[in-house]
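SEVERITY: medium
COMPONENT: batch folding queue
REPORTER: lab tech (J.R.)

DESCRIPTION
The queue accepted two submissions in a row. Attaching both inputs and their returned structure tokens so the on-call engineer can compare them side by side.

ATTACHMENT 1
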Amino acid sequence: MKEFDQIVWDFNGTIIDDLDCCMECVNIMLEQRGLPTLSSREEYREVFGIPVKMYYARLGFDFSKESYEQVLAPEWTAYYRAKSLDCSLCEDVLFSLNKIKEAGIPQWILSASDQSFMDRQIEALGVGSYFAGIFGLSTIMAESKESLAREWATRHAGQRILFIGDTDHDVAAAKAMGAECMLVSTGHVSQRRLRETGCPVFRTSKDLLESVGLA
């Protein structure tokens, strides 16, 4: 059994099952601009990434015509906020939150999401009481959370930390905080891309916890 002092969760695609919502929102924007839409979860998972601005470029948005910061990000955010409060938890997340709580290990959320709206989502999901703290960004730009990870780590020096995420960016965040990273394939990046990171990849968080002796 592996022992950890702290467990840090990513949010989107790791706790909240918002893949379909995110794909629907970006497809609305692509269709309005006559750009090819994403036809499947698999296609979405192959192209999605953080920083989101680079992901938008891969989808064909033209920043010389429309500003990402002033037009595209606010537009997507408006669609997402209108739809995402109806999203549910990812498979096995409630089971996993309870198992970690039973083990007495503090749990945290660290995300590139906008903090203020993420707080509303967590309230809607009814899981806020599981977490010792919730940390997001102060903007809607969905840029890197590595600096946030380093800041969090300074408060937990010498701790054995497990970071649970669903993207290759989570690997970078885990490295920034000196954490061991394990990934779930419930979220926004394909299993193929996750395996390329070299981190252990599991179908759900329950499978992940079983691998470290917590379930």
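ATTACHMENT 2
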Amino acid sequence: MEPNTLGVVLFYYRRKYRITQGELCQGICSIATLSRIEMGFKEVDSLMSEGLLGRFGKEVTRFEIILNDKDYYLWEKRNEIEASIETENYEKAFQFIKNYRKITKEEHNLHLQFCLLSHAKIELALHNDKNDICRMLIRGLDLSKPYFKINNETNYLFNQMEIEIILMLIHLEYKGWEKYEKEELLLSVFKNVSKMYSENQKENIGIRILLALLEIEQKDENNSKIIKYSDKALDFISQSRGIQSIADIRFLKAKAMEEHYRKKKSWKKYRVCCMEECLMAYYVFDLLHRKREKEEVCRFCEDKLEWQITKQEISSE
């Protein structure tokens, strides 16, 4: 992408969403640099382009933002790191990260942030100390969100790398944020993702955020909020093309409803709702060939709802 094209795109979305230059570039570059980018006077590499565009939830084909031979070389090195992690070749990934840090030590913060996130993914896969991983991730987040505070509305502009770090921190039960802060953060990020991100990104990232919210409430055994966020997630998924998470969410909702309503007068009505949720979960688990989860649904129905999912029951629906 030509420098003037990137600048025009950033300026357009900044005006559209009423974002100041300071809000957009915080932790990525200076306001002066962003001004020069928007006027077409400043070239920036593909990682910074992605970081800035990503805060609007926008993306372009990576080859469109490759700047020069050096930028292409670094892009290839990042791909090598990601591919090594994906194929679980962690020793090679560690070496790639080490080399990448050497050749980018004079570059902007996003290169180090990428390395810290990649390193944290490996440490998590190897089941190493969670506190060390959290410290690594917080250091990475601080690089592009140096003044981040959860109660500051202007800080809820995140690109995909920053959201990835936040989701990992919440999964690892990072102790630096209170439970209500994590919930507030995820809801605010979800709001911005729903508003700005493209449909494909919205579907992928939005569902992950809602699943993280459910994970928080599940650990806290807050059944009313599990039901609330399950409904929100199911409504969100109904507008997308994926079904991977539907069964898990429906079954989680059924278990929360059983816990929440069993001793109440309305239990008879909600027992029927639980049965419907379980049946839908059973259908999707069966479609995805997830036998263990399908059997778990059956056990729950028998033990908690005093009801069996039979072939006759399925065919009658």
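NOTES FROM REPORTER
The mean pLDDT is 88.
No errors were logged for either attachment.
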